[in-house]
Amino acid sequence: MQENWQNKHIVFFDGECGVCNFWVQWILERDNEDKFMFASLQSDFGQKFLSERGLETTVFNTMYLWKPNKYYLIKSSAVLQIANLLGGIYKLSKIGKAIPKFFSDKVYDLISRNRMKLANQKCYLPTPHQRGKFIEV
Fold this sequence. Notes:
alpha+beta
């Protein structure tokens, strides 16, 4: 691991999901300030994160955003915070906080349930710098 992950925001994602991998690539391309690192939920690091918090360790339908020693967010809250942290035009995501969490998480769950139908698994090859943002790839 090239960077100190404890000072970053860690995005945990389903490493076998095409939609999830699309969003990881999307974040990587916009993370100009190197705020994020990534770990699949299936990795040892991801499994440790889940088990230490008593979270499901065999179903990977939720994205998590973790700021070590601060907080972790799930589902739509994680997505909105990622957009906010990317800054620029994505800060408009703050408007999404006006939508009740119950509703935004329902939309997230609908997409999550259908994610394998929405995108085929693609093989994305990150640059060497981007590769350094992955924990236990």
